[in-house]
TrEMBL record:
InterPro entries: Rhodanese-like_dom. The keyword Transmembrane helix applies. The chain crosses the membrane at residues 22-42, 48-70, 183-201. Keywords: Membrane, Transmembrane, Transmembrane helix. This is Rhodanese domain-containing protein. The lineage of its organism: Bacteria, Bacillati, Actinomycetota, Actinomycetes, Propionibacteriales. Residues 39-58 form the Rhodanese domain. The keyword S-adenosyl-L-methionine does not apply.
């Protein structure tokens, strides 16, 4: 049974972020510099609240811009977001589209991932010029390829499960969505926020 579970959790496709990584790392780097300066020069009058604020901004930048991830296993589309990880059964996906973010509808709920997305202009142009059924082609933008690949994986899972989008059979699939709250980012945000509040009274 453990072997079967391991196989089901094996990553089939991992999607690369289309934006936010450079600005995220820059923000984390600047925040780290503020924290180091605060520790080194605290006795020389460096404001403690500036260092604490830098820590909070750095943690938020990491959680919101660097931590999010998107991958597909044998059975699930997995969205790791700022403070939680959502496992969506591939066969249970009713609708899906890549606009400014990836939006997925399953179990009559909407889920969003910021990992894959387009600019507003490209999202509007994509909506007018082609759909998710277009196949891969030379020069295809990564967001377009990712959308095509996601639809390919979802369509394959629906076919294997013998369900159609929005059908009664699809809505009756067991465990369509599982959400897990992640302790680490929530704890880091809470601690850094508490340090900022404390520093304001020092």
């Amino acid at each position: 049974m453990a072997r079967l579970q391991h196989d089901a959790d094996a990553v089939v496709e991992r999607f690369q972020p289309t934006s936010g990584r450079i600005s995220g790392w820059l923000t984390v780097g600047l925040s780290a510099a503020l924290v180091v300066a605060g520790v080194a020069y605290l006795d020389d009058g460096f404001p403690a609240w500036v260092a604490a604020g830098g820590l909070l901004v750095g943690v938020l930048a990491w959680a919101a811009m660097l931590r999010p991830a998107l991958w597909v296993t044998e059975e699930h589309l997995v969205m790791r977001n700022l403070a939680d990880t959502v496992h969506i059964r591939l066969a249970a996906v009713e609708e899906m589209a890549v606009r400014q973010v990836l939006a997925v509808r399953a179990a009559d709920r909407r889920f969003v991932s910021t990992v894959v997305g387009r600019s507003w202009r490209k999202a509007m142009l994509s909506r007018r010029t082609h759909g998710a059924d277009d196949g891969p082609r030379d020069g295809m933008a990564y967001a377009d390829w990712a959308e095509h690949r996601l639809h390919e994986l979802v369509d394959g899972a629906r076919k294997s499960a013998g369900v159609r989008p929005g059908s009664r059979e699809q809505l009756a699939l067991p465990d369509p969505v599982r959400r897990e709250h992640d302790v680490l980012p929530l704890s880091l945000i809470a601690v850094s926020g508490a340090l900022l509040l404390l520093s304001l009274f020092l």
